[in-house]
Write a structure and sequence with these properties.
The structure holds two protein chains of two kinds. In chain A, 32% of the residues lie in helices and 36% in strands. Chain A is of the alpha+beta class. The longest helix of chain A is centred in the middle third of the chain and has 19 residues. The chains are: A alpha+beta, B alpha+beta.
Chain lengths: 140, 92
Amino acid sequence: MIAIQTKDVDIGQLINAAKQRGTGAVVVFDGVVRDDDITEMELEAYEEVAVKELEKIAGEAKSLHKLLSVDIIHRIGRLSVGENILIIVVSAGHRAEAYAGSRFIIEAIKAGVPIWKKELTKDGGRWVTGEHAHGSGKSR
Amino acid sequence: MTVKVRFFARFRELFGTDIVTDVQNGTSFIDLIKRIAGKNTEGYAAIFDENGSFREFVVLMQNGRRIDCADAATTPVADGDEIAVFPPVAGG
């Protein structure tokens, strides 16, 4: 399942579905809204493009790290502290591939998928600066 | 001809979500964005530097594909194009 959506997901159900024939390891990444003195977090995406890029990343992760399954669910909309933002569930024959595949996916998402976060505070809000603050003016 | 320009995140707050506009044949990517951004002083300064070039962190897309800022002056927009302009991504 690759999705950008407002609603939360049942991680347990994703884990069960990830246990396909040959699975020896399932790795779950769950990114949550951190309590950085904020009231809520607002997430926004260029949805049509972001979904395609998530699908491409999932495909690359599968072939590079021999993953058996990949689920990526990125939430958008307004989220409270402690809520899930991003859930990545991968399965593989062995833990090394599962960990590496999961790491590959989260780093690729942070590097280029068009999604943005705004931290809402008592005094207003601030856009989160990406870790990869380069645009079209620099080679990627 | 008609194109749609989409701004996201901070740029959306400055310019609005989707702007559908008529453009003349041969209009370049940068000329189109400058024409729209010129209506908002703060927005223009957020996207362009003092020399009128795209700021280094600005990301441009044409129909879902990234284009280099360096090509924006010579790349013409086409009828039905969807142009996206946004700041660095911060998902995850």
